Fold:
Amino acid sequence: MPGMRVHVVSDVHGNAGALARAGEGADALICLGDLVLFLDYADHSRGIFPDLFGVENADLIVALRTARRFDEARDLGRRLWSELDVDRDTAIESAVRRQYEELFAAFPTPTYATYGNVDVPGLWPEYARPGTTVLDGGRAEIGGLVFGFVGGGLRTPMRTPYEISDEEYAAKVEALGDVDVLCSHIPPDVPELTYDTVARRFERGSRALLDAIHRTRPRYALFGHVHQPLVRRMRIGATECVNVGHFASTGRPWALEW
Structure:
């Protein structure tokens, strides 16, 4: 089918207003995850954490995590949760549900979505409306091209909600087979694509994704996760690898046309 245009977003992190406009002018929207905003590292007043514990504690935990003092950050988190009137799981689920209700309502039809590492997959079936297709280790045909989707992230000291083992992640990649467009939340394991220039650290990329790119040679590999990458776009053999951008801050989708 000629003249197709798909808009792609990742790392929405609560930006429902821009999300509601992200599909304008496109035949479909693809969302590569991280809908939830737990803590905005650029504005510490936004997100679930400051809503519960205040901006000063958000400032402190960001400082600890940025300094990679993860044990101290976890100790602070445990203390704050212990002082809260409601248990941790109940408080987080309630806040995530409020965000999901608004964000899923903003998705246009059709939307193809996969999970990010801060998402809670178990809640998505309650909020995904007709017209939104959720895929994780699955494929979809859009305008004559085959898109494969792999959600979630790999395990890190941050211990975000949807982190899985390298083996489980690789099995999902393998299940896709040959695709024209390989869609994931995290990037392939290439230093230029995984280094965050503002946080000054490497995020985890996937060796399984990189191997699949070499093996199956998709036209595109699309991903997000790294908010300020050293390189946003590069070729690996026949494949154009694209970080589609930090949608929470830009409010602009990346466009794929064919």
Summary: The two ends are 9 Å apart (CA to CA).
